[in-house]
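G., the chain you wanted modeled:
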Amino acid sequence: MSTGDTTGSVGADVSMDRDRMFPKLTKEQMERLSSHGQRRHFSAGEILLEAGTPIERFYAVIKGAVEIVRPMTTGEELVVVHGTHEFIGDVHTLSGRRSIVRARARTDGEVIELPRENLLTLIQIDSELSAILMRAFILRRVALMASGRGDVVLVGSSHSTGTLRLKEFLARNGYPYSYLDLERDPEAQHVVDRFQVAPEKIPIVLCPGDNVLMNPSNGELAECLGLNEAVDGRKVRDVVIVGAGPAGLAAAVYAASEGLDALVLETMAPGGQAGSSSKIENYLGFPTGVSGNELAARA
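Predicted structure as tokens:
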């Protein structure tokens, strides 16, 4: 079974090249993956990746099929089905953040399993596989963002500064979410009534694990979503860069390319203040200009 057999897949929501979002690896590419991990069998119904848990493994399907579903209060929503020589994951696979989807075996089969650290090593040394994996990971996350599918629900009002702040925070950090507008969506009022929320407590954020936040700060939301869980504050780094604007991101990229262990600190999101700019002109490499958000995403 392949991605072409799915219903409700992310490909239906955005006009993207499915071959790049869900590429099939060649036999030789699968063998290169296998040299960094191990082969393991799975049984139908087995959970390979659970929503809400940090991603510690990367999987490429040798045979069989693995379905990706989004857990919901009303059940599950099918996102895509990965078949032979396809792989599981998106940008959270690289960062080790919590998964927003569940990966479950649809049939008996076999996968190549790589610890996340081995995947990062592979990406550094294998330029061909790196390009395929990175492109697919980024496109999949963009598709989820565009479709409004995620494990977070934001309930608010377009007239609320807190709502606008949280929408910007989630969008700039590339975190998919669903939005319910109190002025337009009847379901939004049901949520407010259910939790007996006072007007000054709006917006409301429904986080994974049934956590409910009332008008949270950016820091409180980041903690609830586990955005910094993969960062070990006790670890000694080669270089710490304060500020993830264009200069900070460039410094991090070049430090990492020289084999240094780099950590970047930013208050809001990658891109810093420049990330909120609608268009940056005269920036090196972008003769017609580029949005701050796109520049940060590429970096």
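Residues 37 and 263 are 27 Å apart (CA to CA).

Shout if anything looks off.
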